[in-house]
Amino acid sequence: MALYYSIVFGLLIFEMTLFGMMVFPFPRVWKRAVLMKIDESGIIRKNQYIINVVGFFVFVLFIDSVNRMVRATEEVNQANMADPRTDTQLHVKKFYSQRNMYLTGFTLFLSLIINRTFAILMDLFYAEEELESCGGSAPVQHKDVQHYQASNEKQNQQIAELLKELDDLKKKDRDFDLLKKQANGQSSEYNRLADQHNDLEKIREGRVDELKKDL
Fold first, then answer.
1. SS (H, E, C) the chain
2. What's the distance, CA 45 to chain centroid?
3. What's the superkingdom here (predicted)?
4. Which of 58, 72, 111, 134 could bridge to 94 as Cys pair (CB 3.0-4.6 Å)?
5. Does the pLDDT at position 117 exceed 60?
């Protein structure tokens, strides 16, 4: 195996180990502490350029191994199988080209899986940390839920204002009824006094007529 394919093989072993650590059922507290420490340290962001270069290098090797495998397959199909040594060499060449293609292909594919799995775990752990910081009483709310709660609070405020206005109108109506009763009472008293006054006037006029007759 060439040196660069040995490096790719070592990278594949490292990726398999890292992926196994992320998916293996370790205690959740330990796993979250380790992964969040790695993310907060910024080691991935600081070495992002190197990671991209290594990924591009592996991708180039993958394309080259695919081309070699295609050529080796065509050579095996077109070769004269009369000589066993030639047949063996071609099959060995095809085997090595296939091995290199699988090696680089699995390395690229596993790197994508690790990247996505790490991002999902980080989102989950940070969401759990935010929930714990809230005391576990208020879950992380969706924007639609927050919008609904804001609209509900606004409607409750409007209902409270309408109830207050209704109470004010009821008080004014009671005051109006009270004034109406007072006015009716005063009107009745006025009519009574007016009747008494008329009666007194009639009595006075009657006495005056009697005095005139006596004279």
1. CCHHHHHHHHHHHHHHHHHHHHHCCCCHHHHHHHHHHHHHHCHHHHCHHHHHHHHHHHHHHHHHHHHHHHHHHHHHHHCCCCCHHHHHHHHHHHHHHHHHHHHHHHHHHHHHHHHHHHHHHHHHHHHHHHHHHCCCCCCCCCHHHHHHHHHHHHHHHHHHHHHHHHHHHHHHHHHHHHHHHHHHHHHHHHHHHHHHHHHHHHHHHHHHHHHHHHC
2. 25
3. Eukaryota
4. 72
5. yes
